[in-house]
Each structure stands twice: as structure tokens, then as C-alpha cells.
Design a protein that fits this description.
The chain is an alpha/beta fold. The protein is built from eleven helices and 19 strands. The structure holds zinc ion.
Length: 368
């Protein structure tokens, strides 16, 4: 089959090539891939910054944001039928599971021995087929097909928002106002999930980008451009105290600004990955004092487990019902697999870029 692969840790090694077809083992299903969303992680793997091939292979099939259709179901693969549409969960528990992995909380792995499809030690989905156990596949309704490739990034948001609520159950909490830092897919999806609960949402983005402003405003949120407003207490005075800040840029100084900007009893959720080695001078006494005197919480969150994907399926439906078409507008471009390199070029006109794998569309047309 055709697949987009890299030689891990080798810059510019990304290529479309032929690899052996995956063969489903008992208990697994064969999935035909329809499309794969790309994100910053894929770009960094192609730049050779990280990525790890599966044991025994010298290449890694990339891609972790998937949508596909079940083609074959083997004996022992329960709960799925040929023709079902599925999105795959990305992370797998470590082989000798830690406490959390043993409880299916692989997103909370203690020892870092987990694997991730398309990233760390397991092939990804940017190929014609993959095989997987039903436990790691989440079914999506046919009506969601145009937007279901957003489920993986949405699962990250679902975990973040679930944890915000769980942590804040430490008190009576009725959040009024949230700020999302960064108008990429994670930031905008976070804005949508918070708006579903009628929380006032402000999306802070580094520049004026029409498509991102349009999506923000169409969910009834406020778009703030960093070129016009600094992220400081003057902004806070303008909009009011913030109960929630979701950091989704990975620009680490903003994480510390957020600790300063969050309001009384508020919570800062960090989702952005910063790969550099930037240092920063911070007002340590001030930050510490305010954290203590105002019961502030800061926490980090990564990845997602099955229940977050399932919550995401429900929210995709709710978002579609409340703001029809807004999710489709986030998928700004689709490219055929032959043009995967074009799909990796970031531009200010884009939110989510997706690679399509030519797909006959009917379950009768199985693999030969
Ligand atoms: Zn673990």
C-alpha cells in the first residue's frame, strides 16, 4: 500500500512510498483510511526533531489524526462491523503497564514507556490501511464524516475541559469568563466546547487572521488580536476577571503571563508544547503570592483516553447543531496524498489541513 513515511530523526526524509499491507491479527480490524489531519507534531517529525520507528522497522508512517472505514473484522474483534466509520485513539499503554496505563488511563502514563501511533514506536495512519483492535477505535456517525477528522484534536480539548471541571469541583464554581490563547485548532475547539456551556469566551491570537476571526465570531466569542492588545492587566480591566485560561500556543512566556492574569479561584490549563530552551525573568514573589492568596491553579494536560474521544463525538454533534458549518470551515484545505508536502506548508489562511486518501466510498469495494 502507499504510505507517507519518514526516517526518524532525519530532516526532510518524508516521502510517499510503498510499504507492506498490514495484516489484521485475530481480534483486530482492517481500516481503510479516508483522511488524515496534519498538525505541528507532524511538521516536527518531518523536520527530524522527534519520531520513533516501530521495533524492527527503519521507517515510521506518520499521521495521527485519522478517519477511516472498517473493511474487515476478524474473529474476536467485538463491537465493529464492516462499513463502520472510525477514528483511532493515538496512544497505547506501556508494555508493562504502570498504574495508570493498567487502568486504561494511558494518557496519564507514569513512566513514559507508552507508544503513540504515527509518533512514537507505532506506525500512524497516513497510508491506505491500518489495523487496530476495537478498543482503540471510536465509531462516528455517517452524518459527522465531513468533520470527524477533527475528533483527535477535539479529544485533547475534551480531556482539558474535563480536568478543569474536576479540579474546580474543589469549591462552588460557576465560571463566567474564559480566555483561550491561540486560535489554532485546539484553541478554537476549546472555545467551542466552553461556548456550549454558555461561558463568555475570548480568543487571543497573535495576529489578525480573517478565517480565525470568522470562526471565533460565529460561535459568539470575542477575537482579540495581540497586535492591538497586550496580554496584560489593562486587557483584564477591559473584559473582566478570567475564571479559565486555556494556553494553546506553546509560547512559554504566555504560560507565566496566564498565571498572573487568571482571576480569583481561577484555573490555567496548559496544552501547548514548547520545544525550545527559552529562559525568562519572572516576578516570582508576585506570582507566588497571587497564586496563594487567590487560590489559583495551574495544570498541564496532554493526549486523551477513550472517554475523551467519546465525549468529543457527542460535542461534534452539538457543535454542528448549534453553529452549523463552523467545523467544516475549520478544515480549510484538503490535499491528495501525492501532495502531502503542500499540506505541510503553514499559512495564515489555514486552520486545519487534511490529506485525503483516494477512497471509493462504498464498503463493497474492499481491498483486492
Ligand atoms: Zn504507563
Amino acid at each position: 500500500m502507499r504510505a507517507v513515511v519518514v526516517t526518524p530523526r532525519e530532516q526532510g526524509s518524508g516521502r510517499l512510498t510503498e510499504v507492506p499491507d498490514p495484516q489484521p491479527q485475530p481480534g483486530e480490524v482492517l481500516v481503510r483510511v479516508r483522511e488524515v489531519g496534519l498538525d505541528g507534531t507532524d511538521v516536527e517529525i518531518l523536520e527530524g526533531q522527534y519520531g520513533e520507528a516501530p521495533p524492527g522497522d527503519d521507517y515510521l508512517i506518520i499521521g495521527h489524526e485519522s478517519l477511516g472505514q472498517v473493511q474487515e473484522v476478524t474473529a474476536g474483534a467485538e463491537g465493529l462491523s464492516p462499513g463502520d466509520w472510525v477514528v483511532a485513539i493515538v496512544r497505547r499503554p506501556d508494555p508493562l503497564p504502570c498504574r495508570n496505563c493498567a487502568a486504561d488511563e494511558w494518557d496519564m502514563c507514569l513512566n513514559g514507556q507508552y507508544t503513540e501511533r504515527g509518533i512514537k514506536g507505532r506506525h500512524g495512519f497516513l497510508a491506505e490501511f491500518y489495523v487496530e483492535a476495537p478498543k482503540f477505535l471510536v465509531r462516528v456517525a455517517e452524518g459527522l464524516l465531513p468533520v470527524a477528522v477533527l475528533l483527535e484534536p477535539l479529544s485533547i480539548v475534551e480531556k482539558a475541559v474535563e480536568q478543569i471541571k474536576r479540579i474546580q469541583s474543589r469549591m462552588v464554581w460557576q465560571p463566567q469568563r474564559a480566555m483561550v490563547l491561540g486560535a489554532g485548532p485546539i484553541g478554537l475547539l476549546a472555545g467551542m466546547v466552553l461556548r456550549l456551556e454558555n461561558i463568555e469566551v475570548h480568543v487571543y491570537n497573535r495576529s489578525e487572521q480573517k478565517i480565525k476571526r470568522d470562526v471565533t465570531e460565529s460561535i459568539g466569542a470575542n477575537y482579540i488580536c495581540a497586535e492591538e492588545h497586550s496580554f496584560d492587566h489593562e486587557l483584564e480591566r477591559e473584559i473582566g476577571p478570567l475564571d479559565i485560561i486555556v494556553e494553546a500556543t506553546g509560547f512559554s512566556p504566555l504560560a507565566f503571563d496566564a498565571m498572573d492574569m487568571i482571576g480569583p479561584n481561577g484555573i490555567v490549563c496548559l496544552t501547548g508544547v514548547s520545544g525550545g530552551s527559552r529562559t525568562l525573568q519572572i516576578p516570582a514573589d508576585h506570582l507566588n503570592l497571587e497564586m496563594v492568596l487567590m487560590n489559583k491553579v495551574v495544570f498541564g494536560t496532554v493526549n486523551a483516553n477513550r472517554r475523551h474521544f467519546e465525549a468529543g463525538v457527542r460535542h461534534l454533534q452539538e457543535i454542528e447543531a448549534r453553529w452549523p458549518g463552523v467545523l467544516s470551515r475549520m478544515i480549510t484545505r484538503r490535499y491528495p496524498i501525492e501532495r502531502f508536502t503542500d499540506a505541510l506548508q503553514r499559512s495564515s489562511q489555514d486552520i486545519k489541513r487534511v490529506v485525503e486518501i483516494a477512497f471509493p466510498g462504498t464498503q463493497e469495494q474492499k481491498r483486492e
